[in-house]
Predict the structure.
Amino acid sequence: MDIQSCNAKIPVIVIFAPTASGKTALTRELFSPKGSHFLFKAEIISADSQAVYRGMDIGTAKPDKAFQKELPHHLIDILEPDQQFNVSDFIDAADKACLEIYSRGAIPVVCGGTGFYIRNFLYGIPPTPVSDEKLRNQLKERIKLEGNKALYEELKKIDPQSAEKIHVNDAYRICRALEVFYLSGKTRSSFSLEQKLRDKFNFIFIVLEPEREVLYQRIRQRVDMMFELGLKKEVEALKARGFNKETPGLKAIGYSEWFDCEDEEEIRELIKHHSCKYAKKQYTYIRDIPGSSLVQYSESEEDINKVSKIILNFL
């Protein structure tokens, strides 16, 4: 296949799937030269808001180093856990990676479960008031003094639509939504773009939807495996480096729970509960995106072939 002549605009495959749904195995099948369903040369751009952080491997279920060498991945291990990474940073980095990948004769594949990132990558970021440093610092100080939950409850009263899409541990986005309201008098959710995909690329958007109870069972099994692989030691190593519950990276599910209690089994169950709850919420951001292809996905040969056909028809 002559990839460079496929489209006038750069083709970008975007695959959304919740945690533990088998997306890493799917990309191996379709885009690794060792995959039995290999389609063409491609490189993966991770759409995982926590995979960007170094030293957070087990709790984020990153693809292992051998697979990353087998099939190139981008936006993994690019920051320390105490550095902030937002949706604007993601879009800028993903756009740059798409151009570079295509220049090498490969197809960019944006794949992950952070629906907020994927939606904004497809649509662009709606215009909102420019950040006010004084107000932002005031909100950060309130987070430290009052905690995430207090400001999250405040946001739920002001802008329940935005609050529904934000995790209680996501201090950055809680503060930003409150900041927008206090600067403009309008809710963050009231700022929106026309429902039109960006014309910078030629997108194909595929949504994998496993059966709900099967997915929850896979999530619970994955959490058990994380503990067997040494999640506790990974968290202890991060703590030893001076990172704490206010560190941006460690506010993620799988890490924040270690600051909430001391009983290891209770922490395990909390991670399972939060992960299942998050998996349901992940779909909030990718509803109603025009032209999306929904695949009821179970990792079967038939399902892999369905995804393969969708991609080949696109190209």
